[in-house]
Design goal:
It is a single chain. This protein is α+β, with helices and mostly antiparallel strands. 18% of the residues lie in helices and 40% in strands. Strands 1, 4, 5, 6, 7, 8 and 9 form a 7-stranded antiparallel sheet that branches. Helix 1 packs antiparallel against helix 2.
């Protein structure tokens, strides 16, 4: 599975020198100077994000190779609603348009789009999957993120799970949509969207 996550917002990371700035006769920074990266968002800041996923999965069923191919693009709108004295940021995330395609030789092919009509295939199982893929469109989550880019908490996951189950009751089997597991998945997903922030100050060239 390949994830492509281009950040559409500029100026998200603020860079601060961890050592005093000293006037120099050369434009080259002293080797000892290191930079610390932190998230520096303000209340009211808004930015957009688009995540693309391409998946190719092969399964061996009684000696027969079954290939599943899927692609999906999801849009998100971020809005900073609060910034605590500690620097922790409360961010409202709204799921926007979700579209993509799914193909499996045993189930058939499907194209889905939350902003368009998804044509029914005549196969109840794959049609139900199409509804589940687009169920999160319009859903809102609220997360708290610290300045290191770590997600501290996520609210709204229970409502998301309820919405997914309405569109695909079979997903409840095996605990696939356990709210606690979903919260951890959401934390990993949104931390990954922002990319990895160095834990320690780094010098130019490191």
């Amino acid at each position: 599975m390949q994830l492509k996550t281009p950040m559409l917002a500029a100026g998200l990371l603020a860079v601060a020198l961890s050592a005093p700035v000293v006037a120099q006769d050369t434009s080259e920074a002293p080797a000892a100077d290191k930079f610390e990266f932190k998230l520096d968002l303000k209340k009211g800041d808004k930015f957009a994000f688009r995540q693309s996923m391409d998946m190719n999965q092969d399964m061996d069923m009684a000696g027969m190779q079954i290939a599943t191919v899927m692609s999906m693009t999801s849009d998100y709108a971020y809005e900073v609603t609060e910034v605590a004295d500690t620097g922790d940021m409360t961010i409202k995330i709204t799921f926007g348009r979700i579209k993509g395609s799914f193909e499996n030789p045993m189930m058939g092919a499907l194209e889905f789009d939350s902003e368009g009509e998804t044509e029914e295939t005549g196969n109840p199982m794959i049609d139900m999957m199409g509804s589940m893929f687009t169920a999160n469109a319009g859903q809102e989550l609220s997360l708290v993120m610290n300045q290191d880019g770590d997600v501290v908490s996520v609210d709204g996951v229970d409502e998301m799970v309820d919405r997914l189950l309405e569109n695909n009751p079979m997903a409840a089997m095996g605990g696939q949509l356990d709210p606690e597991n979903m919260k951890e998945q959401m934390k990993d997903n949104f931390e990954g969207q922002l990319g990895q922030i160095p834990a320690d100050p780094v010098a130019v060239g490191e």
